[in-house]
Design goal:
This protein is an alpha/beta fold. It has helices at residues 32-41, 60-73, 96-101, 119-132, 155-160, 167-184, 196-206, 230-234, 256-268, 303-312, 319-334, 404-407, and strands spanning 9-12, 14-19, 44-49, 77-80, 82-83, 108-110, 135-138, 151-152, 164-165, 187-190, 223-228, 273-274, 351-361, 380-390, 393-397, 400-401. The two termini are 14 Å apart. Bound molecules: (4S)-2,6-dioxohexahydropyrimidine-4-carboxylic acid and zinc ion (2 copies). The site of one zinc ion (ZN) has 5 residues, from loops.
Length: 408
Amino acid sequence: EVVDAAGLVALPGFVDLHTHLREPGREDAETIDTGSASATLGGYTAVFAMANTDPVADNAVLVEHVWRRGREVGLVDVHPVGAVTVGLGGERLAELGGMARSAAQVRMFSDDGVCVADPLLMRRALEYSSVLGATIAQHAEEPRLTVGAQAHEGERAALLGLAGWPAAAEESIVARDCLLAHRTGGRLHVCHVSTAGTVEVLRWAAGPLAALPTLAAGGRPGRVSAEVTPHHLLLTDERLATYDPVNKVNPPLRTEADTLALRAALAEGVIDCVATDHAPHAPQDKDCEWSAARPGMLGLETALSVVVETMVTTGLLDWRGVARVMSERPAELVGLADQGRPIAVGEPASLVLIDPTAHWTVRGSESASLADNTPFEGMRLPARVVATMLRGRFTARDGKVLRWIDSC
Ligand code: DOR
Ligand code: ZN
Ligand code: ZN
């Protein structure tokens, strides 16, 4: 088959370190099938499925189940993320080793959705992660500072009478865990960085902190990495003016100064990569009062366009840089062998073809996700995924999902 790719940009398939697929437990919001379809339309060839399902993915049986289901669907590689604790925010470490050694080969453990607030537990998780060669992904929230919080602590929230989510609730726990990672030799991945202050903490972790001695066995240094979401790159708390729960997300949308700091940090490499935090919600969980609405936004099908709008159109990244932050660097952080790098001769390719000149208008109802809670509804955005290929087979083309059955 000959594909005319004249004028298109070819990049290695995107790798999302942070996707919520909702299966098992909330199949009315998203399933591994619909989430995979959404991912391939967005140019992704691998996604990391977060552990805050029901039941929580805190054991080998469950992560293997998610992994197998992903393989059956076959549209993207679905890598389950294991929970750090038994239950999210639990008081005991989960059997990380059992999940790492399972068929799912879990390489990332997370407390996303609920924090590991206990420093002793986090320290033990980081120590153990270094033994396993796995990464601890941290939701970046000190829960004692966000009790009741509904929006970014600032003028907007005050006007609406919404309890504020302080920037320091993120910055303080990120600083704490950077120290723990460094001293233990653990690998920490900071999820959805949202404030300029956290960017400064990451600079400190990469510079002065890294120069301090580590207590890890063999003197192996710790590693800190970080991600930013498309919505935190583009949207601000000015959005609260409409009081539409589609804009409710954890961590909350911040200020314009924060978005500019996040963009600069991503361009510089202080923030390693873009991750969507794709968070589908059923209609009844979004079409309600602000305070009752669940936090989270769709992200998979709009990520590329939002990154182009905020990073390429502004001159902060070129296409090489887009490949770095959406594919190469995330694949490297979790050690994916066959993704996120230039394709070798004779190797079945996992790649995405992009029309860099296209513009399109976002419609949640047209998304392959079961949910439609996109905060970008009606926005005209640049760049479009034309085709996605997973190991030599087209999984999406011209906005259509191609399943095995279609290509046989
Ligand atoms: O906005 C969010 N939604 N933040 C989280 O940490 C969890 C996520 C979800 O699961 O919906
Ligand atoms: Zn989170
Ligand atoms: Zn999340």
